[in-house]
């Protein structure tokens, strides 16, 4: 089964090359993209099953033996992230196809969207599977280059301005990451993660702490943790709805994944636990206070995205099996729910002509299905029982109580406060956008679609303004329903998923399953 390990990276890259050759043939591009991502989901699911049964699966790229060559490692954590990310990207792709067909933009230069989207997918998958630091850096750079293009689709002034901020911040984090990689190699003579386990343990404590801090800083920027998150609310909401959704669901979680991987495998022992816990509570509280102050749905969701990154850091900072397993569970939950809410926000914008809450109203009566598609994941995000958001937070609270330290109790209180404020924020959206009477200036019928593309907050893409079509196209509704169902399914399978997360957490904390898989005879 090891031959399957590179496929989540190779297939999207080959698909991207093929869709580039098919520029000007949007129907063929769509079929290639859908086929590739469907196959990626199937391969990722197979890797999850096999890694759970047989342990980590390892491939030495190009036949170069580790540590000289690059290795790809599919352990339970990486495989689980692959399954969730591939499923989400497939649903978002269907949504974007539906939006493009409804807008009549098939013949525009935005056909570059498909190859770029597949390159982004390859970068995400490569980051999850990377078995050495430099290849992890390459995975980040692949997804970041693709994200630059996706963020500025349409080349409007607003998107170019937001994209510039995103590029500058991303380049800064990449430079810090690259410097950290250089320091690690200079100190240990290797970048292979399995080989670094012993070599980093042998370094002086001060040097290890410096290397750990550099990597945490780089990944903290990418994960948008406080106070390194100011760039996100101004960057994500300006992009098209499908792009915003996949960014919100995945890109920050790749940074969280890198933190989990390096903190458990390379730097065990909790030397930065206090820093992680303090950062977690500040990220939760400051992020949700920012969300409460917003009057635009997309910006509000962007701040909740920042806030809930704090829950994941909470679990990592506890350095316990329960805390780490709850953090992994919460990552899976949040990827799904946050993506769903941004897709629902795109539908709100299409139906109501705007995402500004003071210009909306009556959507529950005008579009009951849309109301359900927002209401269910919103409750899930707020952690209302019995949804997966509640179960993930319950696991984190239990881990904090078991820890018993002062900071852990502060995190428990901060997590509960954040959950209540999240409920208040989404209830405010529901009251203003869905429950109250329609705003007098709110368009109706097909006029809503035109307003959504000409609204001042999100400028129209070239070639789409003036088009008319269905208010809520089926190909936009269907993937949103699928993700809502996926979020509900996380509640149904919460028991097995928690068991899987616990197994993954135990393997991470033991470290030996990962090292033995890469070096069966022991690390050189």
UniProtKB/TrEMBL annotation:
The keyword ATP-binding does not apply. GO terms for cellular component: plasma membrane. Residues 130-418 form the NADH:quinone oxidoreductase/Mrp antiporter transmembrane domain. GO terms for biological process: ATP synthesis coupled electron transport. The keyword Membrane applies. It is a multi-pass membrane protein. It comes from the Bacteria. It is found in: Cell membrane; Membrane. Residues 444-465 are annotated as: Disordered. Pfam families: Proton_antipo_M. The chain crosses the membrane at residues 6-24, 31-49, 77-98, 110-129, 135-154, 166-187, 207-232, 239-260, 272-293, 300-321, 327-348, 369-387, 407-427, 475-498. Belongs to the CPA3 antiporters (TC 2.A.63) subunit D family. This is Multicomponent Na+:H+ antiporter subunit D. It comes from Micromonospora phaseoli.
